[in-house]
Amino acid sequence: METLAGFVPLLGRGLATTLGLAILSLALATLLGAWGARAKVRAATGRIRAQFAGGLATLYTSLVRGVPDLVMILLIYFGGQRIINWLASLGGAEGADISKFGAGVFAIGFIYGAYLTETFRGAWGAIPRGQGEAAAALGLRGFTGFRLVMLPQFVRLALSGYGNVWQVLVKSTAVVSVIGLEDLVGIAVDVGKSQREPFVYIMVVLVVYFGITVVSEWLFARVERRANLGYQR
Amino acid sequence: MRFDLVLANWDRFASGLLVTLELTALAVAIGFLIAVPAGLAIAEGGRGAGLLRAWSRFFRGTPLLVQTYLFYYGLAQFEFIRESPLWIVLREPWWVALIAFSLNSGAYATEIIRGAVAAIPKGQIEAARALGLTRFQTWRLVTIPVALRSALPQYGNEAVFMLHGSVVAGIITIQDLYGTANWFRAKYYSPYEGLLTAAVLYMAVTGLIVLAVRQLERRFLAYRRVSR
């Protein structure tokens, strides 16, 4: 127990890795979710290209959501390595080692992009149809109408689902320690074993993750309250 | 890609799949047995509700992998545990996984049941009381059947969540489906075939769970279907 204080800087570095992994993954997942939701919504317009993109998005969400996160992480970690080696050999260059952090960001972003696709699509569908029509009637066309009329309502409707996905995503980062990433979990388990106090160090990890959960809950509740200001009775 | 090597080891993948199904089914079942009384107790503010709420919240707010590590690596730190008769169970990875998974699944399920009980219109409970049902009869005949029905869709999600979470068993050396894929990777120095096989099997089981829940919903939520 006394030695725990000495390992705080090391554990702090692990926490920074975990948080960086989670935040970058969320950014990637948001981009993929926006793409997926747009593709699925536009598939209804009936154009061949839109239908193709919609089919691709449906394939993406149904495949990804059927597979455990760890299996996906390993497939991307090893598969990504092979693709990099192959690309390098095409260019006649030496293959670089894929970083564990990068593989983690890519894998977790890829997985939760599928969940966000559904969240975003649901939120978009929940905006009353008349809103888009009213915007068009006012002459707010294309991106202007999207930015001024649709986006604020979309954010309000998507926030609660977005917060839920974030909470699950954060917990998912623990699994990246399995490929040897020195995140909070990896470091704490190693130190705990070497100090013969695994219980103490793993308990610290649990408490830190719980702290992240509680703080995120609080933040999202605040943002949601703000987004819902116009709707409170 | 050498999928013939997977076929040559089909029995290992089959037994891995069985271990995964067994652990998932047992964890969800035990979690359910914990969750019904726990969810009811929290929703009705009974004795111990605070403690149950804290357990459910903590297990939902932390990763399953780390919870399992706490039981698997953590408990061995204490000599009194290593010397207690409990150690016969706690030193076996399979039991450790089952205990951690059940507590985790139970925590999520408790929240699902709690929400379902809280969502029952007050009038239904009052009507049951007005008919002269005792507290226990109200639970058995009204609260629990109504809550379980409305919890069904979310419970299906929880089962899929547990199936995917059960890869943690493979991390602590159990030869479940993921453990088998990992064994294959180490044996043949080839990561893809085993992992892809596991991915397809996980996807198939996920699909079966979704279909089964849909059947159950048709049966038990039939009253919700709009008659036209």
Q: Biggest sheet of chain B: strands, sense, closure? A: none
Q: Count the E strands of chain B.
A: 0
Helix content of chain A: over 70%
Listing every helix as H and every strand as E from the N terminus to the C terminus, the arrangement of chain B reads: HHHHHHHHHHHH
How many helix segments of chain A? 8
Averaged pLDDT of chain A, please?
Answer: 90
Determine the number of helices of chain B (DSSP H or I, runs of at least 4 residues).
12
Q: How many strands appear in the DSSP assignment of chain A? A: 0
Radius of gyration of chain A, whole Å:
21 Å
Report helical residue fraction of chain B: over 70%
The greatest inter-chain interface is formed by: A-B, 38 and 36 residues
The major pleated sheet of chain A works out as:
none
Give the termini distance of chain B in whole angstroms: 53 Å
* Shape type of chain B: flat
Assembly of the depicted chains: heterodimer
* Beta-strand content estimate of chain B: under 5%
- The overall pLDDT of chain B, averaged over residues, is 92
The proportion of strand residues of chain A reads under 5%
What is the structure about, briefly put?
The complex is a heterodimer of chains A (233) and B (228). Chain A is an all-alpha fold and 233 residues long.
Structure characteristics:
heterodimer, A: 233 residues, 8 helices, 78% helix, B: 228 residues, mainly alpha
Protein model, in words:
- Chain A has 233 residues and is mostly helical.
- Helix content of chain A is 78%, strand content 0%.
- Chain A is built from eight helices and no strands.
- Chain A has helices at residues 8-42, 48-64, 69-90, 100-126, 129-137, 142-172, 184-194, 198-227.
- The model of chain A has no long low-confidence stretch (mean pLDDT 90).
- Chain B is mainly alpha-helical and 228 residues long.
- In chain B, 81% of the residues lie in helices and 0% in strands.
- Chain B contains twelve helices and no strands.
- Chain B has helices at 3-8, 10-43, 49-60, 64-74, 79-82, 87-90, 93-118, 122-130, 135-165, 167-171, 177-188, 191-220.
- In chain B, 40% of the residues are buried.
- The chains are: A mainly alpha (233), B mainly alpha (228).
- At the A-B interface, helix 3, helix 6, helix 7 and helix 8 of A face helix 4, helix 9, helix 10 and helix 12 of B.
